[in-house]
Design brief:
Length: 266
Amino acid sequence: MQRVDFDDISLAYEDRGQGVPLLCIHGYPLNRRIWQDQWENLGDVARLIVPDLRGHGDSTDSGAAVAPHSMELFADDCLRLLDHLGVARALVCGLSMGGYVAFALLRKAPQRVAGLILAATRARPDSPEAQENRLKAVDLLRREGVPAIVESMLPRLLSPSTFSTKPELVQRVKQIMLSSSPASLEADLLGMRARQDSTPLLPGFTAPALIVMGKDDVFIPLAEAEEMLRLLPSARLELIPDAAHLPNMEQPELYNQLVRDFIRSL
Ligand code: MLT
């Protein structure tokens, strides 16, 4: 792990491998460790730059009383990290909330995005019902803490096949989730709740995009991935069997092969 100190926060990150810069942005309520199978196995084709978003993993938060983690704030942190590393342009890969951050980064600095890998994510904003659920999750978090959030999400996060065949992976994911700080999860929930609609960005993004979905994902309807496929001028959609919302962890060999092929096709 490496670390860079900015004026307001300290960001922890991995910088591994050689090749095309590949910024990997984790989802909620997770941290950079979800990308371990990627930074250990893709270093021959890519330079993997893998931050803990502010308030997650080994990164600090600004210390201010809970202020939403807007997707733009996270994107600015990622851009500061790329500046620090002297990386002008990168492939940007985001999983779920990480995808929302990837879209915010694209909105802010399109010239820095060489391509997109959109894993288990969506371009649409929260529906009114989803916004309401964010507030319910904040309430649950305040009353019962991070373990209650983990209990409510974990059974749906991974595929039935992962639960029956990979108990050690289930434990790994659970530990990553449990290590989250309540203040930071609350800030994430409020940030995701307020995020913009990114669908208008899609027709104008002409660089290559790879959309990856686990076939058993219950968080993101396949129709939303198919809509992104239709709207992006140069995209392909790959479905990974026996995987749900964390396809890169549940089926790392398949996922890594898709990323490898994508990078080779650039
Ligand atoms: C995530 O996996 O990052 C979250 O489930 C995304 C969301 O809640 O919208």
